[in-house]
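Hi everyone, sorry if this is the wrong subforum. Our group has a chain we'd like a structural model of before ordering constructs, and none of us has done structure prediction before. Sequence below.
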Amino acid sequence: MKANTKTKETEILEGLKSDPKFFYPKFLYNDIGVKLFAEKTKIPEYYLKNKEVSILKQNKKNIIDKFKSSEKEINIIELGVGDGIKTNIILDEIVWQNYAEKITFIPIDINESILKYYEQKFHEKKFPFPINPINNSFENGIEKIPNRKEKRNIILWFGATIGNMTARKRFDFLNNLNHLLNKNDLVVIGFDLNKKTHIVRNAYETPPNDLFYFNALNTINETLKTDFKKEDFIHFFDYDNETGEAFTKLIKKKGEKIKIKDTEISFENFEPIYISPHHKFHLSQIEQIAENSGFRIKKYFTDSDKYFMDVIFEKIDNPKTELPSVKREPFDLKA
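Answer:
Right subforum, don't worry. Here is the predicted structure as tokens:
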């Protein structure tokens, strides 16, 4: 996997210089953003967390059964630790099934403080296996995993983060991940499923969603020394039920030209900054994602309402070298 060597400042600036303008959603999760995200997951309309928790609770035994390998020791690798509730369901079940002696737990997160907090909570629970946290992006962090060629690797990627990537970025990420894994290694991925428009809109439009996404302006200001103000923008959510495409945008009410370092950024009236994609999926799309990336679906689990799905991908082959033709989306830089 090619390491991302760009600085945070470079990535934020390249997003503002792009057409359309965008903000990488990974930068939403600073210390303030983590707290705001936790608040938005508590509202009844935000179904994603509760649905995935219910899936894991109901299917934890079956999930762990798919993890078991006769000989190899296992790295359990989590991409983005969050509050640890979902991961602890899996780790507790590993202990319950007397499978802990083969396990090393490796959480990867871009936020150092939340990673340290989670490590402390891990030790308080006295899990009988070691933890090896990695403070880095998903892409760079995976490369630092020790002994991955000698062990079986099981990656936990909960929370529908895959929907925060464009089709191109999903393909590139899973393609690169495939090359780092051994045959029959597993990736457990959370997918938010396509559903009625009002359910999705309520999940992303109900306050405090706006506060979470407005926090992008704080990050831009801190990083680039700008002075964007919340009152100059409109929080807007856009969802296409047919394609499953969804985006959160901050729309600037008035046009202006802003000098950032040696670069002039021009805004038109009511021009958006795309803050995050939130793609929703059909099972057929998930099957195609697996096939394109050299994985097969080993098993999938869904909640009773079929709002959400946790899918176990198993590496079986090398990925396709080229993604079938897709349109350029916001967040995809021009070649």
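For your construct planning: The chain has ten helices and 13 strands. Residues 230 and 305 are 36 Å apart (CA to CA).
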